[in-house]
Amino acid sequence: MSRSEPIGSRRKPTAQQSKPIDVVGMPWQKTKIPGIQIKVLYRNEETGQSTILFKFAPGAKTPLHEHTALEQTFVLEGSLVDHDGEVTAGNYVWREPGSVHQAYAPNGSLHIAFFGGHNRMLEGPDATALFEDPDNEEGSK
User: Is the pLDDT of residue 72 over 70?
Assistant: First the structure.
């Protein structure tokens, strides 16, 4: 969607600016990463910006990866662990661009992550694996 007027020129609300998402009604999407399901709330294919709700089964682990832009995560339930420690429910972590880590959920986790750009997988499936149906070899990019 493009805007005809420059940002900052509007002085009152206009229709269709807000984009509500029925997160509760949205089905969980499987990924090719065992034990990880997602709900993609926002995704810009070009920039890699995204907001994703993650559900990790107990013991689920991401592949080793690099965040090419700012990454922010708020843990709603359970916890996430990496080499820097544990982030428990109700807490928040952010990672600067260039950060490399592998997240693990020993007891499971429900968390929301905000990515400023594409992630670069250093092992395992590439970043598009998060957005592919594991039962469909072609994927759904």
Answer: yes
